């Protein structure tokens, strides 16, 4: 599941080869932007804000969001793609490198990207992350379930489904617990530490163990024994949001 750390890493990979470089070829494989040609334009910056990735070119940016299945691949020019061509949404090339965005949930060419994304809450992976502002945002609605609030990118940017499940487990609270009954500063601090700890890792782990099947406490472990108390992990949904990318996991014994 792509979360803030995934996007941060994708931005770092693209930045390394593209920032400051002139594009020798570009192709949006999205009908609306099919005529946009960035050949000869310079990439000024590559950055992530929460789960959004921006490639700045002049006063516009290529804005992308990975959603469930998306990925950015960066490789030397001429390398065979690791995903089918029909999944590509954008292709960018410099003299020696190619970046391809596959199955991007959002892929657009937008003016004034900072205004466009100004609705996002503080970015957990921003070195200047404003924890106090995130706490203020999250506590504004004390009746809202913490599991829902943590995913709301308007309040705080970067937490996806994996981190919300894991953070709730590590704080011992059920995702359905109202925000007003949760130690929000501690929750925000934990979310930041989890994302920062994983921002440069190739394998995400919230347990400290990178072995397959041991990387998370509850996420993706429905029906299997809790790593702490052996109680079977519950798999559920909150409210009426039953989409697969919103499925929740928690331990009914460790979390209350
Ligand atoms: Zn447990």
List the keywords.
Helicase, Ruva Protein, domain 3, binds zinc ion, 256 residues, 2 domains, 6 helices, alpha+beta, 4-stranded antiparallel beta sheet, N-terminal domain of MutM-like DNA repair proteins
**Secondary-structure element series:** HEEEEEEEEHHHHHEE
Question: Strand portion, in percent?
Answer: 15-25%
* Low-confidence sequence ranges: none
In DSSP terms (H or I, runs of 4 or more residues), the helix count works out at 6
Distance between the termini: 25 Å
In the residues, how many domains can be counted? 2
**Biggest sheet: strands side by side, in what order?**
1-6-7-5
List of distinct ligands in this structure: zinc ion
Q: Averaged pLDDT, please?
A: 96
Cα radius of gyration in angstroms = 19 Å
User: Briefly, what CATH class of the largest domain?
Assistant: Mainly Alpha
Shape: globular
CATH second-level architecture of the largest domain: Orthogonal Bundle
Helix content: 10-25%
In terms of structural class, how would the helical and strand content be classed?
alpha+beta
Overall number of strands: 10
Largest sheet: 4 strands, antiparallel
CATH T-level topology of the largest domain = Helicase, Ruva Protein, domain 3
